[in-house]
Amino acid sequence: MKIRVLGAHGSDLLVKGLTGSTNCRSVGFLVNNELIVDAGTLASGLTLEEQQRVKHILLSHLHLDHIKDIPPLVDNLFGLVDHQVVVSSVSSVVEGLQQYIFNDIIFPNFFHLQGSKHAILRAQGLEPMAETVLSSGISVIPVLVNHTVETVGYIIRDDTAAWIYSGDTYHTEEIWEVAARTPNLKGVFIEVSFPDSMMDVAIQSKHLTPMLLAQEYRKIGKSDLPLFVYHMKPIVRDQIIEEIAHLDIENVTVLQEGQEIEL
Ligand SMILES: [Zn+2]
Ligand SMILES: [Zn+2]
Distance, CA 10 to ligand 1 centroid (Å)? Predict the structure, then answer.
């Protein structure tokens, strides 16, 4: 499976560095050119041709940094593609998206567009712990994690590889139990939002710090499993990277925009 990082952060920020500027973008991944995993960055990270190939959007939860690029995608694709883009998650998320965003107030309801041949978006509710095969031949299992709103992480797999996507989470158990018994597990993507010095903020907002990340990762019990870290708040990215470097984890990558991972 080919995973491209569109956004690796928990917010957007243009960061000036010694060798130039880096654009930190909200969380979003493109899988095999047609599946989006979280949509904080989507339309702003893909060309029009690439956006036309998007068939599926998989969401972990409703927080804005995970959904905010769906409206511009729809704007760009409207009238241009014949297929529907399927938005999948647990029912509270796909229903909430229509209630709070695509409600004809914030944005037109592209799930049920009046007078249109067919709506460009289609909602697909997923059952926690049930495996669903997406049109792209990739299957997903949502697993509830521990965040301030209902949130799922995912086991995402095809014939050759499986990987774990944590969603936004604090300490959690079930997803790591599932991970431990998942065959062909090639990598785990785990969020880290704050440095250890901001532990109180992390606990309050139900996110992880590098120290908490290490505790969660060890629950899988596979010490050589490649670990990919995402969802850093841009203003504390450097501090987080420094703390992660001091963790006793052999195969860890802090993700950045534009990176491609083959699992
Ligand atoms: Zn988030
Ligand atoms: Zn969140």
Answer: 5
- pLDDT one-digit tens code per residue, 135-159: 778 999 999 999 999 999 999 999 9
Ligand nearest to the CA of 191: 1
Q: How many whole angstroms from 188 Cα to the centroid of ligand 1?
A: 17
Q: How far is the CA of 160 from the centre of ligand 2 (A)?
A: 30
pLDDT digits (tens, 9 = 90+) for 170-206: 999 999 999 999 999 999 999 999 999 999 999 999 9
pTM attached to this predicted model: 0.96
Determine the distance separating the centroid of ligand 2 and the alpha carbon of 148, expressed in angstroms.
7
Closest CA to 142 of 117, 160, 165: 165
CATH number corresponding to 2-262: 3.60.15.10
Indicate which ligand has the atom closest to the C-alpha of 151.
Answer: 2
Which of the ligands is closest to the CA of residue 61? 2
C-beta of residue 29 within 8 angstroms of C-beta of residue 46: no
* Count of CA atoms in the C-beta half-sphere (13 A) of 217: 27
